[in-house]
Each structure stands twice: as C-alpha cells, then as structure tokens.
Amino acid sequence: MIITSLRSKIRLVFSVTLILLGILFVSSVKYDRAIHEEHNIEQEKAMTHYLYDYYLKHGKIDEAYLEAQNVFLITDRGMVIQIERFFKEKDKIKRYAVDNYLLKRIIIINNDRFKLILENKNKVKFPIKRAIIFSIVFFLIIFLYLWIMKSFRPLSELKRKIKTFSKGNLDIDCKSDKKDEIAEVANEFDHAVTMIRELLHSRQLFLRAIMHELKTPIAKGRLVSEMLDDEKNKARLHSIFERLNLLIDEFAKIEKITSKNFELTIKPYKMSDLVEASTDMLMIENPKRLITTKIEKDYSVEVDFELFTLVVKNLLDNGIKYSTDKHIVVLISENKLEIINNAEALNEPLENYFKPFHTSKKGLGLGLYIVKSILDIHQMELDYRHEDGENIFTVV
C-alpha cells in the first residue's frame, strides 16, 4: 500500500517514533533485569561458598550474614515440603539449585554438611527516573504531533474553499494573517481568485453588452419587416430575425455554461417530448421532411429542460447539416437516443470535435463543444460509431 497523503506520512513517522521509543524503554528494562540476574547469580554463589566455609569453622549457619544479604532461611515445614516437591518435579534437587516459586526466588543448598532452603528477596527495582524521562519524551512527541496536525487545519479549510470555487462560487475569501507556508499558498490562491473573478466579470459584461447591442437592430428589423406588403417576404424576414434572436439566447446559455454561472432545474421528461421540443427549436419548415423519428421504447430522463433540448437541437442541426441527403433518423430505444445520418466517417477522433472552435466549414465549431459541456453536467456521455455509410451519435 502506497501512502500518498501528507497527513498519513506524518502519522507514520510519529507512530514509528513512538514504537521505537517503547521498544527502547522495554529493552532498557530487560537489560536492567539481565544485569540484576547476573549480579544475583554471582552473589548467590559467593554466599554459598561463604556459608560452607563458615559452617566448617563454627559448625553453624551465619544468619546475620544472610539477613545482611537480604536472604532469609525458610523454616516453615509445609512450605519446605511444597518447595522440595516443586524442585523434584523439575528435576532440580541437586547440591545447588535456584528457581522461582510463587513469585519468590528460592535457593536450595544441599551438601554433605547441611541442607538449606533460602529466599532471596533482592529484586530489581522499577526504574522510576527512567520511566519519568521516557514519559516526558512520549508526551512531548504527542504534543509535537498534535501541534503539527493543528497547523494542517488551514489546509483543510483551503481545500474546502477550492472545492467551492471549482463548483463556480467565486465569492470566497482565503486570506490568512499567519506567516507559514500554508498561509502563503492561501494568500496567493486568494489573489488568483480575485483576478479570475475580475476577468469573468469583465468577460460577462462584454458579452452581455454585445448581445444587448445585437438585440436592438434585430428588434428594429422585425418592426420594419412588419411594414412589408409581400406576406411571403415578411414571413421569411420574420423567421430570420426570430432565428437570430434564438441564436443570441443560445449564446447567453453557452456563456453561462462555460462560466458555470447557472443553476440546474432537474425534472423527469419523456425523451420523445425532449426530441419534439428540440425539433421546434430548429425553426425549419416541414421538419418531418428532414427528420424521421422512430420510437422503439420511450423512456424518462431527469435533465434540465432548456440545456438538454439545446444538446439534442445541436445534434439534430449537425446531423442535417453534414448529411449527404439532408435527412436524419432519430431513434429512441431503451435508455439511449441515437441520431443517424448518411455521411462520411469523421476524419478525427470524436474527442477532437469537443474542443471549442474546432475547424469547421459549415459553422463555428461550437456544436459538439456545447453538447459535451452540457452532457458532462448531466453525467451523460456521447458515443460515436460509423456503420454501413452511416454516422451514429448516441446519447447514453
């Protein structure tokens, strides 16, 4: 498992440090016990020789010496029997034997002069000073860990604000009055957000001003067309100005989509109704002459009506525009919409046509860019395949 998170790496470093500290403390205690055990063994051997020599000289045991060595003679008959049985079971009844019995260190001295069962009460002392030092170091490491992790809190806040910014909310404030590196990053990001906010506002103002200025001559043109006596030309001009007005509205939608300055109104709609509404948006006379709709299995889809009909409208418009016979088939089947036309296969991969202002002889090259942008918002996909001389675009 590869650890990529900076927090995880810091946790790992501190965890390893604490584990090593614990191992060091336990090892030091074990080392003390081993030294104490060696000292006990040497003390007990020296004591055995002394007692034997003393007994040869004086004919008795030097109990004062034993007491001075913190070793005591066991005289209780019942205890003696239990200890002897324990040592026999372990096959340790010899001239000299040492073992632990009921958490007591028992020594048996059995020679040709006497037999003694002793309890050595010399025990290793718990290293209180060392434990205090290790505890101080342990809590210091914990404090440093918490202190460092606390310094990451502004980073989490910055991450949350970046997510908010990525969703289109430009009204965020990331300024920090601290002096660390995270504060420097936050302040630089806040400066970048301010610059982007200003650029977007100026861009929106510029586009809206252009669209407003275009609507004025269109409105005048519509008024002038109403004064014509020729009804046929009047209808044509009226249709042209309606088309221009619709294009401006679409450009406004595109501006909102690209700047993510919009709110979706998601509702369930029948796919057949969406296709019919998109066909009306084309504003063509006798649409059945150019579009054949086949419904194998109609289905509902949850979308934003205005945006999704713009997707279907662009696909229909492209299908008619690039078809060799100026005719397309719209197939509605289970959970998918297909737009089919007779045409040559695409010269480039479909992904290339998703780029804005892609080279196009019959338009601005924005159609599939708009389609892709809106489908991404709805978490849908556009697939393409060429079969038997037909281009088939599928909305999944």
Explain the overall architecture.
The chain is of the alpha+beta class. The chain folds into three domains: about 5-120, no CATH class; about 170-260, Helix Hairpins (Orthogonal Bundle), CATH 1.10.287.130; about 265-395, 2-Layer Sandwich (Heat Shock Protein 90). Helices cover about 55% and strands about 15% of the residues. The protein has ten helices and eleven strands. Strand 10 (about 380-385) and strand 11 (about 390-395) form a beta hairpin. Helix 1 packs antiparallel against helix 4 (about 130-150). The protein is elongated. The protein starts with 5 loop residues before the first helix and ends with a strand. The model has no long low-confidence stretch (mean pLDDT about 85).
In terms of topology, how is this protein built?
Layout: H1 6-58, H2 63-68, E1 71-73, H3 77-89, E2 96-101, E3 104-110, E4 115-120, H4 128-150, H5 153-166, H6 181-225, H7 231-259, E5 266-270, H8 271-282, E6 291-295, E7 300-304, H9 305-322, E8 328-333, E9 336-342, H10 367-377, E10 382-387, E11 390-395
Parallel strand pairs: 6-8
Antiparallel strand pairs: 1-4, 2-3, 3-4, 5-7, 8-9, 9-11, 10-11
Helix pairs in contact: 1-4, 5-6, 6-7, 8-9, 9-10
